[in-house]
Amino acid sequence: MKQATHQIYVPTRGKGLYDFTAQVESWLAAQKLQTGLLTVFCQHTSASLVIQENADPDVVADLADFFGRLVSEDTRLYRHTAEGPDDMTSHIRSALTQTQLSIPIHNGRLALGTWQGVYVFEHRERAHRRSVILHLLGE
Amino acid sequence: MKQATHQIYVPTRGKGLYDFTAQVESWLAAQKLQTGLLTVFCQHTSASLVIQENADPDVVADLADFFGRLVSEDTRLYRHTAEGPDDMTSHIRSALTQTQLSIPIHNGRLALGTWQGVYVFEHRERAHRRSVILHLLGE
Amino acid sequence: MKQATHQIYVPTRGKGLYDFTAQVESWLAAQKLQTGLLTVFCQHTSASLVIQENADPDVVADLADFFGRLVSEDTRLYRHTAEGPDDMTSHIRSALTQTQLSIPIHNGRLALGTWQGVYVFEHRERAHRRSVILHLLGE
Q1: ipTM for the assembly
Q2: Do C137 and B139 touch (CB under 8 A)?
Q3: Model pTM above 0.90
Q4: 3-state secondary structure chain A
Q5: Nearest to A17, CA basis, from C59, C114, B92
Q6: Given this model, what pLDDT does residue C48 score?
Q7: In CA terms, which of A108, A134, B71, B133 is 20 to 30 Å from C85?
Q8: Nearest chain B Cα to C88, which residue?
Q9: Between chains, do A3 and C104 touch, taking CB under 8 Å as contact?
């Protein structure tokens, strides 16, 4: 049994979902494992992770819109407003989605379903470079 | 340290929660491990996973109703409508719950709390056969 | 490769978020592992887990308020009301957040981001002693 860790950065350009499945798969392929478990961990509280459909780009746009409606940017609702109207909403949207995902590895590949992609969900208006830790266990 | 993977199918008959704890425990028992980590991964973006109370069936009915109110099926809200009014809502409800759960193994059994069961949360009207990947590490 | 499990209790005093990062780190330090994966599992369906900002206490207060607005305690909305108006809402708030979190270990420490803390999110009014299972794999 072997393990490996790696840090990747996912660049974002404002609110929305950013598919980084290829970045994960590329590192995984270099590890030469057949079976295992890959954990993806987002080191932020104003961006998060989600597995979503990768076939129709309308899906991730609709998803981002939904969270826009669900978590109002009306600053009168929040105490924590010093960093702008998109800060507290980012923490809430992160709590409603994932900070971490673990995906089984089968035959050397992520055992994702046909239509599944792994996304960083950026909740801030401003561009960021999001740090994601990868951890792999397997053989 | 040993690992094993397995694919199971959970049949669903429309929207709602389907307890598949027994299917997971049955496979786990055959692996003869004492301590470890079991990961359950749902290979879909219109069905998801959730751990919920298994004592009173009203709980999962109320939970399904809540998501029905929270994520409106009004198709005017969405771009992605080609597959029907319950398609984009399914992706959103999946993002709000889990695609993956990891559960510690203690004394050869899932370390669930007394009232916890593991459910597939089906978000589509139509019956499906949902693919769930199990991954086990331990000894 | 080594693994270890441990049960900790997080005392709560009504609805809100309780930082227990130090409890986890203290146990982790005693395990003397450099690299690995730590899984935190909450054995309840009326309390959950969340990773949130630990710098400004307003963040977790705002987060708790948001869930108060999102999941109404109006008992006419629910079948499952025998245990009081904060019971079914607790199950729903748990489903919307996490029952389990896995965090990579790097250089013997949790690979959390600078501002990330690990919290029990208590959804009941009454004080509880919440059972959390820790599982560690690594070397």
Answers
A1: 0.97
A2: no
A3: yes
A4: CEEEEEEEEEEEECCEEEECHHHHHHHHHHHCCCCEEEEEEECCCCEEEEEEECCCHHHHHHHHHHHHHHCCCCHHHCCCCCCCCCCHHHHHHHHHCECEEEEEEECCEECCCCCEEEEEEECCCCEEEEEEEEEEEEC
A5: B92
A6: 98
A7: B71
A8: B59
A9: no
